[in-house]
C-alpha cells in the first residue's frame, strides 16, 4: 500500500486494518459479525470468505456447493454464532460462526412439492438442475434475532438473580416454621428467586444435563465433507458439544431465537433455533431488506414490487406463547430430536462403512482359497480349513494358499482389518449409539407426556400416539445394539484365537509340514491354542458373521418413495419392539449362512436391521415434526403490510427497527426507519414509519393507532452520494448515520449525521460533520461501506470501487469526540449499542 494513501488533507479516523483480495467481491453480499469482528464476503468465484478484521487473516471459507450455484443471500446471526447463506438452487445453509462447518441445510420447495422419503441410508446424490418452468424459489434475505422476553416486557433481572437454579437454591428460599410456616417467600433473599419462577423452573427442568456429554463420531474417512454435512458435524468434541448445546446459555429460557427465511416470491419461513420450523407466511412482493430488534416481537421486511414501488411487511411473532415454558420445552426437545437423529444416522453410516471396508479383506482371502479349490475335486474353503484344524493334514491347494497368499504380510492385514472392524463398531455402539438412544428417548417421552397432558386442547395439539410410534424403532435399535455388543465380544475372541492358529500354520507351511522345524513349532504352539474358539470361528464366522444381518442393507429395499409407499414397505410397516424380541430369539437358533424365517412378518430380518430401523425412526420423527409444525403455524398471524410512497429515483440504503418505549399509553408498535438516497436531488432522507402490530394492538384495544410517517431530509452539497449506513446506537427517537460522499475532484469523505437534532445550528446539523477524507490522489477509491461492531468497538469498513480491497476505520474514536462536544445532548453521555 502506498504511504501517500494515508496522508489525509483533513479529518482522519484511526486506521485499524486493510486487506486486498485476489478476487473481486460480489456486492451486496458482504456482512459484518458484530460480536466476533469478522467480515464475510462473497467473491467472484461464489465462495464465502470470512476474514478477521483486526489482522485480515482468513478465518474460514464456505465453498460454492457446485459450479452452477450462486449465492443469493448472506447474513450473520446477531450473536455471530451462525452465518446464513442462501443458494440459487433453492437451498440455504446455516454454518458455524467459528469454524464454518455446516450446522443445518434447508430447502425451499414449491406448492404441493414434498421431499421424498428415503428407504436407505445412502448419501443423497446432488439433484440435477430442474428444467425450465420448474425453477425453485431462492432465498432473498435472512432475518435473525434473539428476542429478549424480559426486555420486551420492560423487566430487568434483579441483582443476584440465579439462572438455572438448583434444588438447593430453591430450598434456601423456604422459611422455617418459626418465620413463615415452611413457605417460599414471594421474593427470597435479596430478590434472587421469586415464587412465580418456580413453576417455570419445574417445567423447563432438563434431565439430560446430568448425563455425560456425547462423544465424537470417528468417521474413519467415511465420506468427504462436500458429500454430506453430517460428515464433519460431529468430528470434534467442540463441534459435537456445539451441536447439542441447544443454545441454552445462562438465560436461554428468557429469549426466543428466531430466524425468518424469505423467498424471492415473498413466502417466508419462520424457524426457532435455526432448525425448528414454526410455519410460513407470505409478504408482499420480493423481499430485499430485513430489520428486527431484541425487544420487539416484529420482523420488518422491505419488499420491492414489479412497478418499482415498495412496502414494509411486519411479521409478528407470538413471543408470550413461544417464550412460555411449554413452548420452550417443545422447541428445545424438537431441536434435540432433530440433532440426535442426524447423530444416529451418522453412526449407522459409519458402522456400515467400517463393516464394508474391513470385512472385504477377510472375504478376499477366503475367496482366493475358493478360487484355488474351484477346479479341484475338493470341498469348499470352510470345510478345508475345518479339516486342517481338526487333523493338521494339508492338501496341495491349502498349502499353496497359506504359503503364497497369507504369509506374514497378509496375515497382518487380516489382523488389522478385523481388529478395526470389531473395535470401531464396538466403539460406535457403546460410546455413540446407546447414549444417543437414551437421550432421544428422554426427548420423545417428554413430548409424549406434554401431548398426553394437553390432549384435546390447543396448547399442544399433537396425538401422543405419534411419539409412541417413534419409541418402537428406538427400543428395537437398543435391543439390537446390546445384542451386537455380545456378538462382537464373542467373535473378536474367536478371531484372535483363529489368528494365532493361522500364524502357526504359516510357520509350519514355510518350514514344510512334518519337518523337524514344523513339528517343533506345532509342539510349541498347540498347547496355547483354544480350539473351542477356533472351530466356531471357521465354521460360523468365516461363513457369515452374526453382525451381517444387523448391518447390511436389506436386499431389494433402497431408494426413495412417497409417504404412502414408505409406510407400506415391510421394513417400515412391521417395526415393533415385541416382534423384534421374538425375532432375536429365533435368530439364535438359525445356523450361520441361513435366512431368518418367520411367517408372521414378511421380512423378519428387517426387525433387527440397523439401516431399516433407522429409516423407520427417521420416518416417524418426520411425521411428528410435521404435525408439530402444523400446530405451531396456526400461531402466526398474517403479516401487516404498509405501502410506502417513495419518490422516483429513491434507493433504500439501510433499514432498522426500533421497539416502542415502555410505558407509552398509546397503542404504538415498533418503528421502522429507512435510510434513502435520492439521486435526482442528491439528498439523504430518514423515513420513519410507526405502525400498530398484532402484538401491541392486543395489549392496547382502546383506540386505533394511526400510521403517520415522519421524514428528515439532508441535502448534500459536497458531492455525489455513494452510500450511507445507520450507526447501531440508541438515541431515543433520533437516528445516527454516516454517508460516503464523492466530490467533483475525486475526493471522498465520510460524513456523520443525526436526525431530529435539537440545540444545534440547523444548517450545520443538516450538512453533517466530516469524519474522514480520502484524498483524490490516493489509489484507494471508495465506493461502498459497512458499519458494525459492538459497544465501544464500532468500526466502518470501506470498500474500493473495484471490490478487491477494503479498509477498516475506527468509528468509535469519532463518536467519542462527538459525544464529548455534546453531539447527543445532555444526559446521554453513554451511548448504547442497538444490537
Spatial order of strands in the largest sheet: 1-33-32-31
Radius of gyration: 34 Å
Give a count of the beta strands, DSSP E runs of length 2 or more: 34
- Measured by DSSP, the beta-strand proportion falls in 15-25%
Mean pLDDT: 82
Question: What general form does the structure show?
Answer: elongated
CA-CA gap between termini: 34 Å
Name the structural class. Answer: alpha+beta
User: How many H/I helical runs?
Assistant: 20
Number of domains: 3
Q: Level of helix content? A: 25-40%
**Regarding quaternary structure, how should these chains be classified?**
single chain
Q: What is the makeup of the main sheet?
A: 4 strands, antiparallel
Unreliable stretches covering 5 or more consecutive residues: 1-6, 125-134, 154-162, 176-184, 186-191, 698-706, 757-763, 825-835
Amino acid at each position: 500500500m502506498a504511504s501517500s494513501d494515508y496522508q489525509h488533507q483533513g479529518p482522519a479516523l484511526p486506521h485499524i486494518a486493510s486487506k486486498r483480495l485476489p478476487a473481486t467481491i460480489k456486492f451486496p453480499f458482504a456482512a459484518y459479525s458484530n460480536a466476533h469482528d469478522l467480515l464475510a464476503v462473497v467473491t467472484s468465484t461464489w465462495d464465502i470468505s470470512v476474514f478477521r478484521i483486526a489482522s485480515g487473516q482468513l478465518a474460514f471459507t464456505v465453498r460454492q456447493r457446485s459450479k452452477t450455484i450462486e449465492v443469493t443471500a448472506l447474513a450473520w446471526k446477531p450473536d455471530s454464532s451462525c452465518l446464513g447463506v442462501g443458494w440459487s438452487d433453492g437451498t440455504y445453509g446455516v454454518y458455524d460462526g467459528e469454524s464454518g462447518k455446516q450446522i443445518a441445510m434447508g430447502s425451499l420447495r414449491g406448492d404441493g412439492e414434498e421431499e421424498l422419503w428415503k428407504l436407505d441410508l445412502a448419501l443423497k446424490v446432488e439433484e440435477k438442475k430442474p428444467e425450465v418452468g420448474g425453477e425453485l424459489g431462492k432465498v432473498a434475505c435472512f432475518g435473525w434475532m434473539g428476542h429478549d422476553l424480559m426486555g420486551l416486557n420492560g423487566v430487568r433481572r434483579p441483582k443476584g438473580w440465579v439462572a438455572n437454579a438448583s434444588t438447593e437454591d430453591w430450598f434456601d428460599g423456604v422459611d422455617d416454621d418459626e418465620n413463615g410456616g415452611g413457605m417460599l417467600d414471594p421474593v427470597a433473599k435479596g430478590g434472587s428467586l421469586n415464587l412465580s419462577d418456580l413453576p417455570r423452573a419445574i417445567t423447563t427442568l432438563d434431565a439430560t444435563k446430568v448425563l455425560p456429554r456425547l462423544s465424537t463420531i470417528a468417521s474413519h474417512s467415511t465420506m468427504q465433507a462436500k458429500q454430506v454435512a453430517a460428515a464433519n458435524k460431529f468430528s470434534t468434541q467442540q463441534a459435537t458439544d456445539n451441536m447439542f448445546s441447544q443454545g441454552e446459555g445462562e438465560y436461554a429460557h428468557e429469549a426466543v431465537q428466531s430466524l425468518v427465511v424469505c423467498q424471492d416470491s415473498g413466502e417466508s419461513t419462520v424457524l426457532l433455533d435455526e432448525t425448528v420450523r414454526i410455519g410460513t407466511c407470505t409478504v408482499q412482493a420480493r423481499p430485499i431488506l430485513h430489520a428486527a430488534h431484541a425487544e420487539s416481537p416484529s420482523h420488518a421486511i422491505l419488499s420491492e414490487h414489479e412497478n418499482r414501488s415498495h412496502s414494509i411487511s411486519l411479521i409478528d411473532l407470538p413471543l408470550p406463547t413461544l417464550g412460555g415454558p411449554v413452548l420452550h420445552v417443545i422447541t428445545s426437545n424438537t431441536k434435540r430430536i432433530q440433532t440426535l437423529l442426524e447423530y444416529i444416522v451418522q453412526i449407522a453410516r459409519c458402522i456400515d462403512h467400517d463393516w464394508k471396508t474391513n470385512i472385504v479383506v477377510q472375504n478376499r482371502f477366503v475367496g482366493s482359497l475358493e478360487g484355488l479349490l474351484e477346479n479341484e475335486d475338493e470341498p469348499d474353503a470352510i470345510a478345508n480349513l475345518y479339516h486342517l484344524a481338526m487333523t493338521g493334514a494339508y492338501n496341495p491347494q491349502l498349502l499353496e494358499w497359506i504359503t503364497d497368499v497369507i504369509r506374514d504380510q497378509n496375515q497382518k492385514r487380516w489382523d488389522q482389518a478385523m481388529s478395526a472392524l470389531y473395535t470401531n463398531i464396538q466403539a460406535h455402539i457403546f460410546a455413540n449409539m446407546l447414549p444417543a438412544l437414551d437421550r432421544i428417548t428422554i426427548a420423545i417421552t417428554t413430548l409424549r407426556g406434554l401431548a398426553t397432558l394437553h390432549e384435546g386442547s390447543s396448547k399442544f395439539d399433537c396425538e401422543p400416539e405419534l411419539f409412541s410410534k417413534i419409541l418402537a424403532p428406538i427400543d428395537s435399535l437398543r435391543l439390537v445394539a446390546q445384542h451386537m455388543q455380545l456378538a462382537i465380544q464373542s467373535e473378536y475372541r474367536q478371531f484372535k484365537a483363529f489368528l494365532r492358529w493361522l500364524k502357526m500354520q504359516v510357520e509350519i507351511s514355510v518350514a514344510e509340514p512334518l519337518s523337524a522345524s514344523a513339528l517343533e513349532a506345532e509342539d510349541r504352539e498347540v498347547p496355547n491354542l483354544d480350539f473351542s474358539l477356533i472351530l466356531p470361528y471357521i465354521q460360523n464366522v468365516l461363513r457369515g458373521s452374526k453382525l451381517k444381518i444387523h448391518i447390511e442393507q436389506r436386499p431389494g429395499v433402497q431408494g426413495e418413495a412417497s409417504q404412502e409407499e414408505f409406510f407400506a414397505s415391510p421394513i417400515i410397516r412391521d417395526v415393533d419392539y415385541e416382534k423384534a424380541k421374538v425375532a432375536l430369539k429365533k435368530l439364535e437358533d438359525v445356523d450361520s449362512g441361513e435366512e431368518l424365517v418367520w411367517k408372521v412378518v414378511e421380512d423378519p430380518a428387517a426387525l433387527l436391521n440397523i439401516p431399516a430401523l433407522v429409516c423407520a425412526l427417521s420416518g416417524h420423527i418426520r411425521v411428528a415434526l410435521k404435525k408439530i409444525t402444523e400446530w405451531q403455524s396456526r400461531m402466526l398471524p398474517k403479516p401487516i403490510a404498509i405501502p410506502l410512497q417513495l419518490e422516483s429515483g429513491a434507493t433504500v440504503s439501510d433499514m432498522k427497527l426500533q421497539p416502542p418505549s415502555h410505558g407509552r399509553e398509546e397503542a404504538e408498535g415498533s418503528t421502522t426507519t429507512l435510510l434513502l438516497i435520492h439521486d435526482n436531488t442528491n439528498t439523504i432522507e430518514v423515513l420513519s414509519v410507526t405502525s400498530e402490530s398484532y402484538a401491541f394492538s392486543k395489549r392496547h384495544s382502546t383506540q386505533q393507532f394511526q400510521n403517520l410517517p415522519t421524514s428528515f431530509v439532508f441535502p448534500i452539497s459536497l458531492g455525489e452520494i455513494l452510500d450511507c449506513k445507520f450507526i447501531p446506537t440508541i438515541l431515543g427517537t433520533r437516528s445516527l448515520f454516516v454517508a460516503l460522499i464523492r466530490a467533483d475532484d475525486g475526493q471522498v469523505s465520510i460524513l456523520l449525521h443525526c436526525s431530529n437534532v435539537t440545540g444545534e445550528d440547523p444548517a450545520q446539523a443538516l450538512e453533517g460533520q466530516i469524519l474522514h477524507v480520502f484524498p483524490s490522489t490516493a489509489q484507494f477509491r471508495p465506493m461502498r461501506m459497512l458499519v458494525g461492531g459492538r459497544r465501544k468497538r464500532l468500526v466502518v469498513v470501506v470498500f474500493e470501487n473495484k471490490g478487491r480491497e477494503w479498509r477498516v476505520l475506527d468509528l468509535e474514536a469519532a463518536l467519542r469526540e462527538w459525544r464529548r462536544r455534546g453531539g447527543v445532548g445532555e444526559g446521554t453521555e453513554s451511548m448504547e449499542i442497538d444490537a
